[in-house]
Amino acid sequence: MMKRSNPIKILRILLLLLPFGVKAQNQPAPGTSDYRKMQEAAKNPVVQSAIQKNYPTLQKEATESPDKTDQTSRFAQSNVGQSFSCSVENPLLDPSFSYLPANDDSSTSVINIPFNFNFFGTNYNKVYINNNGNITFDELDSTYSSTGFPSPRDMIAPFWADVDTRNNTGYVAYKVEATRLTVIWYNVGYFRMKSDKRNTFKLVISDGADPYIGAGNNVAFYYGDMQWTTGDASSSDNGFYGIPATVGLNNGQGSGSCYYSQLGRFGKPGSEYISSTDISGVSYLDYKCFTFDASTLEDVEADFDWQNLICAVDFTKYISNPQNCNVIHQWDFGDGTTSQEEAPLHSYASAGTYTVKLNVYYQCAACQGNFTTVTKQITLDPDEDLFKDTVIQVPTELKSRVISTTTATFSDTWPLQYEASGLNDKSGYANGSEGVWRKEADYVYKVDRDQTNPPSLRDGGTFEMDQFSWEYAAIDAVPDWIKLNTMTAYSPYSYEIENENVLGIHNAALYDYGGHLPSANGVNMRYREMAYTGFEYLTGQASGNWVFGNQPLPRYKWYSTDYCYKHIVVVKASLEEIQGYDEVDVFGRSYFWSGFPFYFYYRHIRDNEIICRREHPLHPEWSILILKRALFEGSWKGHVMFRNDLQPIVQADIDNNMSHSGSKSLKISGDETFEQKLLVLDSAKEYQLSAWVSINDLHRTIPVLGQNIGIKVSVKDKDDLEVTSFMLEPEGNIIEGWQRINGSFTCPITNSTIELTFKSGSASIAWFDDLRLFPSEGNMTSYVYNLNDYRLQATLDEENYASFFYYDTEGNLYLTKKETEEGIKTITENVSYLVER
C-alpha cells in the first residue's frame, strides 16, 4: 500500500436502484470548533430563493421534509443571485427595533406602514402586532387560544398561541422599513409566565418587490428553536397538547372567508408533520422558513409524475400557480380504485399499462374553482432491476505503525419495548416514544502486518490502517474493517438479549426477576425461539418468553433494516415472520445527506401503513416493505417494530410450597392449556422441550409417576387451526420426587403458534417446574435466584439438570450439590467457624 496523507478508497457495493447523494469531503473532527461551525451552518444555511405565487414555499429546512406539499414547484423560476437566510436574528443587537412591553394578550396601537400590503386584493397601510404570535389589520386581537383557519378575522400568524413575555420570558420586537415590516418573537415563553420552554420565530410582510424575501413574495415566516405549543389557559399539559397553535394566514374580508392558507396546527412535541389540519410536532418548524404571495387568487394549473417503488407507485402532484386555499384531488388509478390523497402511494395487483387520471380544483371555504384534469398512461415492469453495482468513494485518513485496533458503533434508532403514557410530558427517551442510544456493532481491522528482514521487534509486526469512516459504517462500506459482532436486540432496560457474530450465528439471553437478572443464556439461537421459566417471576406475568398470566402483554417483534430509501424499507425478516401486520413503527437515521455525510438526523413514525410487501431478491430471508409515509426524503437505516397486544385468558396456579429449583412451580389439576404467542419458531427446525414434573410423593420409586402425565405441544397456523401435535412424557429416574420431561419436535410451518397442554393424568394434581424450549442445535444454561436476596440458588445445564448452591446466614457459599441420574450428589462443602476466646 502506498502511503497517502488523505487517501480515498473506491468501493463497489450493491445498492437500491434509486438516486442518493454521496460526497467525499474533508470534514472537521467531531468536538472541534470547526465541527461546531459546520453544525451551525447546517442549521442556518444560505440558499437560492424560488419565486412562487400564492403558496407557502418552503425555502430551506434543516432536515428533509416529510410533507410532499413542501416541495418547490417545478414550474417556479429561480431568482438568480438572490440569497435567502432562514436565521432569526436577536433584535437586541439592532437598535432600530422597537419593543412591546412585557405582557400577556396585549397588542401595539395601530402602526402605519409606508408601503401597500396587498392581502388577497385588499391594500393595507396599517397593522396591529399582537403578543400572541400574529398580526391583524382592522383591529387588535387578544385571543390566546387559536381557532385554526378559515376564520372571520383577518390575520397573519407565524405562530398563533398563548405567548407570555412577563417575568423575563422573552420579548416581542418590530421594525418598520420603507418596503417591509419585521416582527420577531424572541425566546418567548407561554402562559402562565412559564420559561422552561421557549420559542423563537419571525414574520416579514413586504410590498411584494422587496428582495429580502424575494420579489413576487409578500409574506415570510422564519423559525428558530421551537419548544412549546400551548399555554396553561388552553388546556396545556406542560406546554403541549390541549388547544394547538395555528400557523398560516387568513383574510376574513374575502368572499365567504375563502382566502386563507393554513400551514399547520401544532400541539405536541417532536418533529412529525402529517398535514395542514392534523396536529403535528412543533419541532417540525425548527430552523425552517416559508414564503408566500398573498396578493392574488388565480385558476389552478397542475401536472403529476410517478415513480415505480418495487410493488407500489408513488404519485407526485405539481401546482404551477399554487393558491392560498385548499387543493382538492381526485385520483383514478385506472384499475377501478380511486383516492383523494394529495400524493398517494398505490399498489397495483399486476404489471401492465394503466390510464391514470387526476382531477384538481381549489376549494377556499365557500369558494370552489374549476376542475383541471390531467391524464397519463403508466407502465409497470415487474422485471425492473432493484439493485445495481454502485461505486462510492470512502474518504479515510491513513495511520501508520499500528499494533492493534478495534472500534464500536452506536445508534439512537433503537426503540424501547414499551411506551409510558403517564410520562407524556417527559423526554421521548424516557417515555419510550423516541429511540435510545445503544451499541450497534464491534469492528476489527484486518490487513497483513509488516515484516522486516531481518526480523525486528522494534519495526516489525505493525500495519498501516485506514481510519474508521463512521458515516459509511451504516452500509458496511468501511474498507478492511470487519464487523465482528452485531447487536440485534435489547431488553427494555438496555440489556443485550441477542447478537449475531461474523459467521451469522446468533446468541441470545433471557432476563427475568423484574427484567434485571439473566435467567437463561442460549448459544446458536435467536431470542424469539428460546424460552425458560422457573415460575419465580415477581409480577405474575410472562416469564422468559413463556406466557402464564392474565395481564395484557405487549408483544413486539422488531428488526433492524438494511439500506432503505424514502418509502422503501428493507427489513431483516422474512415475509412469513411479519405476515398479518398492516402497520409498523419505524425508527431511523438519515445517511448520505447531500451536505456533510457525517451530519445525521433521527426520526420515527408510529403506525405507518404498509402499502405492499415483497421478498428481497438477493436475500430471501429478508423482506421489502413500501410504507405510506416516507421516514426521510433520502436514504436511511434503522429499526422497525411490529406491535400487537396479547391477552392471555388462563390464569396460572403458581404453588409457593413445591419446587424443583427455587421456591415455586406450576400446579396442574387435570388438563390446562396455555397459548404461547411470544415465541416465533422456524419451519423444518427441531426444538428441544424440557421440564421437571412431580406428584408430591417422595416415596415413589417406580419408573413412571403415573399414566398420561406430561406436556402436549400443539402447532397452529395463522387461522388458529391445529397442524400437528406432539406428546412428551416423563422418563428416566425419579430424583427426590421429580422426574424429567425431555423430548424434541419439529415445527412444520412458518408463522405458527404453539400451545402447551399440561396433563396431570392419573394423578389428581401434578407440579411442573423449570420449563424451557430451545433449538436442538443450540445449548442453553438457565439460572434460578432466591427472591429474598437475589443470590444464585441454582443453575441448570444443557440437559436441564440442576446444580444447587447453599449459603450460611452471613451470605457465604458453603455447600454445592449436583443433580444426576443417580440422584443429588454433594460436590463441595466448606464450613468454617471463628471462635472468640
From TrEMBL:
Region annotated Disordered, chain positions: 52-76
InterPro entries per record: CenC_carb-bd (IPR003305), Epithelial_Barrier/Signaling (IPR051495), Ig-like_fold (IPR013783), NIDO_dom (IPR003886), PKD_dom (IPR000601), PKD_dom_sf (IPR035986)
Residues in PKD domain copies: 321-360
CDD domains in alphabetical order: PKD
Bilayer-crossing regions: none
Signal peptide span: 1-24
GO annotation terms (biological process): cell-matrix adhesion
Keywords: Disulfide bond, Hydrolase, Signal
Comp. bias (Basic and acidic residues): 61-71
SUPFAM superfamilies named in the record: PKD domain (SSF49299)
Pfam families in alphabetical order: CBM_4_9, NIDO, PKD_4
Entry protein name: PKD domain-containing protein
